[in-house]
Design a protein that fits this description.
Blueprint: E1 8-13, E2 19-25, E3 32-36, H1 47-53, E4 58-62, H2 81-94, E5 100-105, H3 107-118, E6 123-129, H4 134-143, H5 145-150, H6 152-156, H7 162-180, H8 195-205, H9 212-219, E7 236-241, H10 250-254, E8 263-268, H11 275-278, H12 280-292
Length: about 300
């Protein structure tokens, strides 16, 4: 199956030997916008942004380590957070850039926060969709049982093989329901996934072993939390769908204390966890506004 989009797919080779797949739009030489997807997704979750921002940016949407057409090491130790952070640094350099606008959603948002903390010189502006600062997440989850319950899948994924099996049952019913059910999916007022969109996800995650790499990310999440360093020093935009079934919105406002620069938070009341797909026009407009603001603006 081919996903028909007016974009060009490329491959990047890291020094470690891992092959990373990405889809790019926009001319080479324009400022880089790097897009990091969440779980269970792949580059395709950024299709609306690839089209939107190619006029002024070289827009690159990755398949993260273990996802889609990117290589998937077999051992869970290869998915520690420090490996995932280094991946982004190496990919940036392999693309011929030393800095970028970094955008991450969900798990990709976690990685984006960590890259911004560890390699601030590489991130001109940070945009995160539906994921709080990692320190907020770890502190909040310990104090709020309701969030602990919503994050229960983090602990379920620690089991070997069974989580992968559960996703495949009944023709990947769990995967489809994440995006389409009333409880967790895109709502009636959102831009619902088409049959072709669902087929794209099913095609990627039905490949042999395609779920193990993504779930291995969670099996290694406790490798570097809590953080030793916390502060984010570049202008930051946090976008949040208030109907997120997995993340409580209270974490969004608390995130402000860790950003030592201009911080803008926008909460969309009718939007789901899958925000950039749910409300692409609004999200794109908010990103444009943030990108065009003065980078030297004082924190509000």
């Amino acid at each position: 199956m081919m996903i028909q989009l007016p974009l060009v797919a490329n491959f990047s080779i890291r020094d470690s030997g891992l092959r990373f797949h990405y889809v790019a739009a926009g001319e080479r030489g324009k400022p880089l916008m790097l897009l990091l997807h969440g779980f269970p997704e792949f580059w395709y979750s950024w299709r609306h942004q690839l089209r939107e921002f190619k006029s002024e940016y070289r827009v690159v949407a990755l398949d993260l380590r273990g996802y889609g057409e990117t290589d998937a090491p077999s051992h869970k130790e290869n998915y520690k957070l420090d490996c995932l952070i280094t991946d982004i640094k190496d990919i940036l350099e392999s693309l011929g850039y030393n800095k970028c606008v970094l955008i991450g959603h969900d798990w990709g948002g976690m990685i984006a926060w960590l890259v911004a903390i560890c390699y601030p010189e590489m991130v001109t502006k940070l945009i995160v969709v539906n994921f709080p600062h990692p320190s907020v997440f770890t502190e909040y989850i310990l104090r709020h049982p309701s969030q602990l319950i919503k994050s229960g899948y983090y602990f379920f994924f620690q089991m070997p093989w069974f989580p992968e099996f559960m996703f495949t049952v009944n023709d990947f019913k769990v995967l489809k329901s994440l995006f389409t059910s009333q409880a967790t999916g895109i709502g009636r007022k959102g831009c619902r996934l088409t049959a072709e969109d669902i087929e794209a996800y099913l095609y990627v995650f039905s490949q042999p072993g395609a779920l193990t790499g993504p779930i291995n990310h969670y099996r290694s999440i406790f490798s570097c939390l809590p953080l030793q360093h916390h502060e984010v020093i570049m202008p930051t935009l946090l976008l949040w769908g208030e109907r997120d079934a997995f993340m409580e919105v209270e974490m969004a406002e608390i995130t402000r204390i860790y950003v030592k620069n201009h911080f803008r938070l926008t909460i969309l009341s009718e939007a789901s966890h899958w925000l950039q797909q749910d409300q692409p026009d609004i999200v794109n407009k908010l990103i444009w506004t943030f990108l065009k603001e003065e980078t030297t603006r004082k924190r509000e």
